[in-house]
Specification:
single chain, about 300 residues, alpha+beta, Fructose-1,6-Bisphosphatase, Chain A, domain 1, D-Maltodextrin-Binding Protein, domain 2, 2 domains, seven-stranded mixed sheet, about 35% helix, globular, hydrolase
């Protein structure tokens, strides 16, 4: 069965919301924080496995018989629908295990064809559901961003710069960006909050000045839904490896998100610090098409 982007958005919104509610109900349950193994750089807790199983059951109940690419079990085949779902059932697991409720469920969907493996740029719908009591943020390609069923709620004051860096060279980009933003009269509070899908979404819909992760550690499951929410909201998005496959877990390199009013500052700082090559990876959305920013601005 084939599914349209709006149909997929509605399904993913329901599933993400139900899974977030499941996590809310389990929040603070010590026995669910038992470590069942270590995969790549992350520990797998019992809660990771339980919420992942719950999402599989929810997808099947929705009639979505697809492939699911997920952190804990790799690729799971629920049926033969030509759709792949990228799932992070608990983004922010370290926060969750520390009783900090800044975490989310993230799902994104892309069609599958028989000629090419699905890539990060192929996503057509997605949803990010905070586990705290807040509406699901979702999008369908060309249909805009929803928070619940409304447009995203805007904050009257933006001060957050969301960032991740691990050494002095990486931190230099953040330091220069803070200086540049303050030089333009903006008040800046730099934070690392521990859930990439939420932070990218927050920046993408304009609630933060920017999101920057220059560690090179983020993976497809961490950011797939969120970067497309940001694009659909009109933000500029850099992903170092836009060509990453989404039918398996792959690293995507540097990820940067900036709303239109701070994009020029971010771009200037990147070039000033010797990272103009990253600007070449920036995309924005025009109607339903992803447009390389460098190409779109040639001659201007």
């Amino acid at each position: 069965m084939e599914w349209s982007p709006p149909e997929l958005r509605k399904i993913l919104t329901r599933v993400a919301g139900e899974a977030a509610g499941f996590l809310r109900d389990k929040f603070g349950s010590i026995n669910l924080l038992e470590v069942h193994g270590v995969k790549a750089r992350d520990e797998t807790m019992r809660i990771d496995l339980e919420v992942e199983n719950y999402v599989f059951e929810l997808l099947k109940a929705e009639g979505l018989k697809c492939l699911v690419a997920t952190e804990e079990r790799g690729v799971v085949k629920l049926g033969n629908d030509p759709v792949v779902i990228v799932l992070d059932p608990l983004d922010g697991s370290k926060n969750f295990a520390s009783f900090v409720p800044w975490a989310a469920v993230s799902l994104a969907a892309a069609p599958i064809n028989n000629t090419e493996p699905p890539r990060l740029t192929d996503i057509v719908a997605g949803a990010v559901a905070p586990i705290f009591n807040w509406p699901v943020i979702s999008f369908a390609k060309g249909e805009g961003v929803h928070e619940g069923e409304d447009k995203p709620l805007m904050t009257p004051t933006r001060r957050l710069l969301l960032y991740y860096a691990e050494n002095a060279q990486q931190a230099l980009i953040v330091e220069k960006l803070i200086e540049a933003l303050k030089a333009r009269g903006m008040r800046v509070s730099a934070r690392s909050l521990g859930s990439a899908s939420l932070e990218v979404s927050w920046a993408g819909i304009g609630r933060a000045l920017a999101f920057i992760d220059v560690r090179g550690k983020l993976r497809t499951i961490d950011i797939t839904a969120a970067v497309h929410i940001a694009l659909e909201a009109g933000s500029y998005v850099i992903v170092e490896r836009w060509g990453a496959r989404i039918d398996r877990v792959e690293e995507v390199g540097t990820v940067i998100v900036a709303p239109p009013d701070t994009w020029g500052i971010v771009k200037s700082v990147l070039c000033e610090t010797g990272h103009c090559n990253l600007v070449d990876q920036a995309l924005s959305r025009k109607e339903t098409q992803l447009i390389p920013v460098a190409r779109a601005t040639q001659g201007h």
